[in-house]
Amino acid sequence: MPRHRGTYKPDHPEPYEVSRSQIQSFKNCPACFWMNRVKGIKFPGMPGFLLNTATDTLLKKDFDKYRELQQPHPFMERHGLGHLVPYKHDDFETWTKSLQLGLRTYHEPSNLIIGGGLDDVWHDPKTDEIFIVDYKSTAGRRNEDLTDLQEITLVGAYKEAYKRQMDMYQWIMRQNGFNVSKTGYFVYVNGDQHFEDGMLEDDIDKANMKFNVQLLTHEADDSWVEAAIMELKDCLHQKDCPSHATSGFGPKGDKQCEYAQLFESMEEHSLI
Predict the structure, then answer these.
(1) CATH architecture of 16-241
(2) What's the half-sphere exposure (Cβ side, CA atoms, 13 Å) at 149?
């Protein structure tokens, strides 16, 4: 399907591509989204975390072995999910390509193409139900008695974005006609930076880092997605910049958009 991307052009007849992360940007702060998509302003971004990319790649290799066999991975069996298998589908590799919006759907009411790239999908062969799976990586703290790493949870302001990510992928898959469970899974690998023996091998130039692995279950809710898409489309057509978000930032989610104060100061000094 023809489409346009990059800076939004209101008179362009073709559908405009919006990634899952751009919807998250809009939810975070409409002003920053508008300046980026409508005015083409590029904000400084965080550098890519190649270690996270490496763990994602390795986890996919783990589950790909059993995708070919159409058997549950032992990790899945240990967590009571022996009835599921990694999903084998002709389009699966395409779905994982985030830069190309490999997983996508055309939203006719907004004339937007919504897409992204997911990590994995698990499948119940008996019910033909699919389960969206997301890989996450971190390096956590020790627990109170210093015997192990703290258990990871989905509580916290920045983890709300993880949940919305799951919501979005479920919604896109439903738009493509799949029978999608509301239950999604996060495979979370937690690097142990407190490992007493360090990581270097004695006799070769190799190093090993140990990870704890958790499976977190999330009951997703995509009921907000349609309204958010229409609000985003309205934002793209605004002539004036909307207000910056006054909350949702910081560890507790109680801080304003990090760029709000910067732009306020620039306006005070007639710099913009």
Answers:
(1) Alpha-Beta Complex (3.90)
(2) 21
